[in-house]
Design a protein that fits this description.
Elements (H helix, E strand, L loop, with lengths): L2 H14 L1 H12 L6 E4 L21 E7 L8 E17 L2 E4 L11 E6 L13 H6 L4 E6 L4 E6 L3 E7 L4 E6 L4 E7 L5 E6 L7 H5 L1 E6 L15 H4 L6 H4 E3 L8 H11 L5 H10 L4 H12 L3 H17 L7 H13 L3 H18 L11
Parallel strand pairs: 8-13
Antiparallel strand pairs: 1-2, 2-3, 3-4, 3-5, 3-12, 5-6, 6-7, 7-10, 8-9, 9-12, 10-11
Amino acid sequence: MSSSFQNTYKRGLRNNGDAYAHRNLNKHTHTSCTTACFVSHSMSMPGKYGQFSSFRNSGLSKRLRLDSRTPNNNAFLTRKTFSDFRLSRLQIGNFISEEIREEKDQKDARIRFYFRNSTDIHPETNLSATEAALVAPDRVSLSIKKGTKRIIIPAEHIFSIEFSRNEGRIVIQTDGWAVFEELATSATHKQIFRVTDVDPTEGELLRAKRIEVWLNLSMPLTEPKWTKGNLIDNIDKTSRFHHILHILDADPCPTLQSIIEQWTRDSTIGFQSERLLFQRSQLCKLSRLLDIFSNVLKPDPVLTAPMNGILNIVRTMGTKSEVDQEELLTKVKQALFLIPEYLILKSLDTMFRKELDFGSENVSNDFEI
């Protein structure tokens, strides 16, 4: 970064606030972002459901923006994690809105879940209830009437959310409080959402306190991983959604055996028939399960000896007749299952690559699981 640019950046901070500085910074970093920008990126996240790439519109998308909703328009950089779903129908009490898009130029009706992230900047405490709702880290946003009206509900006003994947239906129980926005044209002839006192549900939200939406299954967006029921690995642990979001038809919980079988099917190392033989002949042995730990941990050299010592103690215990081998194996599997799935898969690839290069390592104290 040149000294002349640094001076410009500092002068911008003094004279015009953070927004000016961010605009000038973006010019020199080739980032197109003045008031808002959407970052489409690839990311790989660990979890019991394995690695997965970024999702378009739906899934875990992240938005970087300069938020000017704080007092005095002091902008700050925020990154929001959210998931989108297209809607086909919405019902709140006696209020019903059919949301199938009839023309190509019409906007989608959507429901968006914003999830708190541990890196979020906390909103200022002197915001009004409406201002706080618009920047709440955990919130639900409903875009209805062909995308021209918006209902925003912070998670603190939501009691429960029931999500049925098979039915494509979401039921939200609330206390009836919400912020309403409508699409308007600004002085620069751009369409923006502005807060309004007009309730598009005509008071039904406050009366019924229940929202039922049907997803557009004929034009779905990419399904987020958390809809399979694995919230822990796919939604930040600080999010309130862990307490209110319930997946009614979640996938069965994975097991260590299912992870190993997934690796046998999907790995690109060797042939599947070779991996299957390796699974059945080697991954049923205590020492090979402990090898997974060795490959994952890869400690600092000064810690290698004590770590290997601990693993050798476990191996030795497996040979003692007075030790309940069934219980020992159960404990080892439970400990292995705490490792993120993508690391287990990576470790298995490493082990199998060595197997192909050097053959089986015959360990005298191995025994069948």
